[in-house]
Amino acid sequence: MGLTLSAVSHQLQTLGAGFPAPLLERHGRHVRPSAAGQALARQLAVPFASIDRAVAEARAARSVLTISAHDSLAAHWLLPRIGQFAAQCPDVDVRLAATARLVDLDREMVDCALRLGPGGWPGVTAQRLLAQTIAPAIRADRLVHGAWPRIVQQGKADEWEDWPGLGGPAQMSVPNRDLTISAVLAGSGMGLVDLLVTADQIGTGAIVPVGAVRATGWHYHLVLPNGRRPGPAVRLFRDWLLAEVEATRLRLEAVNAGL
Length: 259
Known about the structure:
Elements: H1 5-17, E1 24-27, E2 30-33, H2 35-59, E3 63-69, H3 71-88, E4 92-98, E5 112-117, E6 124-139, E7 150-153, E8 171-174, H4 177-185, E9 190-194, H5 199-204, E10 207-209, E11 214-225, H6 232-257
Parallel strand pairs: 3-4, 3-5, 7-8, 7-9
Antiparallel strand pairs: 1-2, 5-11, 6-9, 6-10, 6-11
């Protein structure tokens, strides 16, 4: 117990002082529970057992991992893979929040985030994962049907300056990269897609990059809050994520080599 004999004796005296009948009886150098002490022990056995069960359940409780991820990355890359992580770590429950905004990890109780941007965010530690690269792509069955409209992200029409000869004269404007990907997958035209986000669709041949690859200057990062030591679930997710990103990087290198 980490207590001296005198400290134990003092605690027993303090305990007995609160009851009208003595809880302990001395027999020479030995101390035994009195009848009142035995009765009290029987009454307390059930609530103490409940406390023991509650503590054991709390210690055995499943870990909950809350991840914030950039919406396009979450929808097209992370969700198809997160089941593998769940299978490898069955004691971890994953909560995924998909958003393009910068989440306050501490205020919103988020364990980690996958962010796209230049890095250097205050209050967090950002581990660079992979550069964002884009290229024109079209659904595979549209390649033989002539010039299809360019799918242009609003406010970023100048992105197409690196590919002046691709796409038809018509244009379709969409508000973000996620809808660009959806439009390409729907066969609506040719769009500039994020190669990491669409790695699976490119790998299966559903969409086909048709122009040179360009880096945007931004990177994907794994972001952790400063001042909070990563728990076991976060460390497991980080190790799994790094392996998945590396596997995707190798696949993209093969794609880039063919363009």
